[in-house]
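Changelog-adjacent note: as of this version, every example in the card shows the full chain rather than a window. The one below runs 322 residues end to end.
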Amino acid sequence: MYSVDDISLQNWQITDLQTRVATLGQGPVALFIHGWPECWYSWRQQMVAVANLGYTAVAPDMPGFGETQALPAIDDYNVERICAFMLGLVQRASGGKPVLLVGHDWGAINCWQFTQRHPQYVARLINMSVPLRPVADVPPIEFLRGYFGENFFYQIYFQEPGQAEAEFDANPEGILRALCCSPDTPRDPPLLGRSTHEGGGWIDRLGKPQVQPQWLSDEDLAYYVNAYRHSGFAGGINYYRNLDRNWQLMLPYRDTVIGCPVLFIVGTGDSTIQGASEEKLRAMMSDRVPHLQIEMLQGKGHWIQSEATEEVNALLRAFLAE
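Full-length structure tokens:
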């Protein structure tokens, strides 16, 4: 039986980028795509779970994260370029054979889009936290600016180059502690309100956590802090700066049906789904994802694979045993 200590960290050349890749096991490939602000490390327990089922688990640092090279320009972090990177990973890891694809947060977005654009390379899809949303008729940032008006929203804040990364690079532990919480983690009152007229950034609007959640050890937090001290936050934020470009590039795929079996896992306390029920999530996705299994974990939040490791791993094992 494999353990986390058996994970191997390697350097691969993927689409001209020096890429750090974690690998474990032997067999068909399970490719794990992380979100923001994470890196390969957030998948370590799931890598063990699938490797012990007979898979080769592969988890890269995505471009601009951890020890994988950043892309040269903000505009390079678009869906075409990221999907090309993921295709390079598939070809290197499996020789082009279809893989089990697993994503969380931005990784889920990337996996939805990759599966729509390159269905022949995905045997099964497991996504967490971010559902496949309908493609709107207006660019997302235009919609968000109209919806939030003068109120602060982080995705709008991220649009100004140099702004958010300067805040987070100056205090990586501050932003990571503030984000890596459970829904019921007690917080101090925020130092800043909702209005953008107050100035300031995001950390002071989140409220300092009064306790560290049990699922985030000091060792885990130190790993993420060191990863972001190495890479900086700009690369990860640049994915958000391509939301409008990605909307444009994905318009031709807005009705594309994902034909492979799909498992979607989400916590009921994850703000990403805004309190949506299973019925609402199924109505949102089922036309484009006909072979869809939805699992909602009661009271769990956004960092689902860390917050509910045993439950998530059990769902992975059951899905892969079908």
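Structural remarks: The chain is about 40% helix and 15% strand.
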